[in-house]
Amino acid sequence: MSKVRVLVGTKKGAFILTSDGKRRQWEVAGPYFTGWEIYHLKGSPADANRIYASQTSGWFGQVIQRSNDGGKSWEVPGGAPPPTPQGWPQGQSNKFVYDTSAETGKPLTTHQFYDGTQHPWEFKRVWHLEPSLTDPDAVYAGIEDAALFRSTDGGTTWKELAGLRGHGTGPKWQPGAGGMCLHTILLDPGNPKRIYIAISAAGAFRSDDGGKSWKPINRGLRSQYIPDPTAEVGHCVHHIAMHPSRPNTLFMQKHWDVMRSDDAGENWREISGNLPTDFGFVIDVHAHEPETIYVVPIKSDSEHFVHEGKLRVYRSRSGGNEWEALTQGLPQKDCYVNVLRDAMAVDQLDQCGVYFGTSGGQVYASADAGDTWAAIVRDLPPVLSIETQTLP
Amino acid sequence: MIRVALPQHLRTLAHVGAEVELEVAGAITQRSVLDALEARYPMLRGTIRDHVTLQRRAFLRFFACGEDLSHQSPEAPLPAAVASGQEPFLVIGAIAGG
User: Fold this and answer.
1) Does residue B33 sit within a domain?
2) β-strand B89-93 against B2-5: which pairing, if any?
3) Residue in A36, A76, A97 nearest the CB of B43
4) pLDDT digits (tens, 9 = 90+) for A145-164
5) Domain that includes residue B19, residue range
6) Pairing between strand A269-270 and B60-64?
7) How far is B23 from chain A (nearest CA, A)?
8) How many domains does chain B have?
9) What is the CATH classification number for the domain harbouring B46?
10) Is the pLDDT of residue B98 over 90?
């Protein structure tokens, strides 16, 4: 019988929730890394026992954690005491140093700050870890201030894919309210050279050569909060989702507006349709139905809670525009939680499971593609991220 | 032996107790003590001071012998009581919040 593992990152630690394929009874393990912000943890598609976690703290900075046994135990890659003090490499798994070498061609050192001045890039934290689809030791990291790093040694050392910051629009990027973060990384399962990423507040970008060179893919986005609403960059993209069987079709939750592209991001069109509000953070795609997508509308950019005090997931079975509210099992009065950009995921079971976590510490699960919901846990710290693993 | 007291979260990260003891060669300074600490416990690199600039992280402080040494030069000799192992060198997480 299949199992599901739900990896939960919260503001004060990580939790791992497990269940059999029925998804009625859940075991809750954790907290791991107690007291630290766990922005993201994600398992390798190539080895379910390999899980990476981003552990951060205002006091102690960034730590990368790695598990080789499905989350039972954790280690800092390269962090074990060396046989001699002169041993090397050691303790570099949290060393994210921007590439300013000549080989990048454009050693770029500034971006636009809140006051319009140019500001140096400063590493703050890892927002998102995206393991390779084929190699458990290869993993990408999306960081704040926005840049993309890659490790090919299991997270022990990191190197920036500097062509992203260096491609030309970098000086125009600027931080959103949550910081200037690279929060979305999508790997095309049919084309190992193609990578999509998204940055707040810069927009979406694509590489077709394995991360060496990049181009903005924001045509069709319209953002009234920037001087030129259709600018090449500057859009506050909150999240992008893709179904692996259709890697040219992308679904985007922008600051405002839910968008869709069917040509690998070259052109976007709005699919907000009948949503009660098209502000939000999460968006995800059904595991087996590429035209079935999910969002959680949030009231507005200054009121980061669900609309009308009702926690409603909206599902479209037509790839957007026509949306239905999914409410069964979710609170429908006096609810004022938020659902952050990386806090929704689906499992791969025949009857697709959908999961999301809230700022109130609830993790909700649906074992029937969203028709009905139940809380797995209700009182965790605020949830930052949700990922799943479907196990044999 | 130099004694270094770590805040709880760094003890957990390094799998150590409240204090660690370190052999430090040469002059006993903030820098030499932290170099020795990071060599023995590599997972602490980057958590107390920046990897590249070696600057102390903003919300950490260094105390010893009842004094705040956070703003002293990393090359300045630490108090004799620290150098002799009589007193620990304290890495403290600042009270930050409300």
Assistant:
1) yes
2) parallel
3) A76
4) 999 999 999 999 999 999 99
5) 2-93
6) unpaired
7) 11
8) 1
9) 3.10.20.30
10) no
